[in-house]
Design a protein that fits this description.
The protein has 157 residues and is mostly helical. The chain has helices at residues 7-17, 20-34, 39-53, 61-71, 81-92, 94-107, 127-141, 150-156; strands spanning 78-80, 124-126. The protein is built from 8 helices and 2 strands, in the order ααααβααβαα.
Length: 157
């Protein structure tokens, strides 16, 4: 059947062109991460926030600091790059996260990026570095995002 006449192909093209699956995956990841008492109100708030943010990432520096703290229950002050990559895979979807990490590594000086470490279980990130590198990957994954850092997002609000 002609792809232009195939309703499934048209639906798939629509969903892909508007990044609907990525948006829903991100919302679901945030919902499961936060586990709010009122999921519907939480999702509405996140969608309103996304609309107001335009092309900026849905998570801000404060969210990433909270995420780091949750991944560091012993209070050691660091998490592994593997933990950061798992968080990104949950938030963005595995393939999209891997592409964004690869893009961040390619843009990094000398191609060295903490999340692209050969041994992500050994690479450690303190809270500030976690916010910086995870924020960088989220910005690279955000379509039409013109920010260079999450600090720019704070300044734009």
């Amino acid at each position: 059947m002609d792809p232009e006449r195939d309703p499934r192909a048209r639906i798939a093209a629509y969903l892909h062109s508007h990044k609907v699956e990525e948006i829903l995956q991100g919302l679901l990841a945030e919902l499961l991460f936060a586990k709010p008492a009122e999921p519907r109100a939480f999702l509405i708030e996140r969608l309103e926030r996304a609309k107001a943010a335009g092309g900026r990432p849905l998570l801000d520096a404060h969210d990433l600091e909270a995420m780091h703290s949750m991944m560091d229950p012993t209070g050691a002050g660091t998490v592994t790059a593997a933990q950061a990559n798992a968080a990104l895979a949950t938030a963005l979807g595995g393939a999209r996260a891997a592409e964004a990490v690869a893009a961040a590594a390619a843009a990094a000086a000398g191609g060295a990026h903490p999340l692209a470490s050969k041994d992500p279980a050994a690479a450690r990130l303190d809270k500030a570095e976690f916010v910086r590198v995870v924020g960088d990957v989220l910005i690279r994954a955000a379509p039409n995002c013109e920010l260079k850092s999450l600090a720019d997002a704070d300044d734009a609000v």
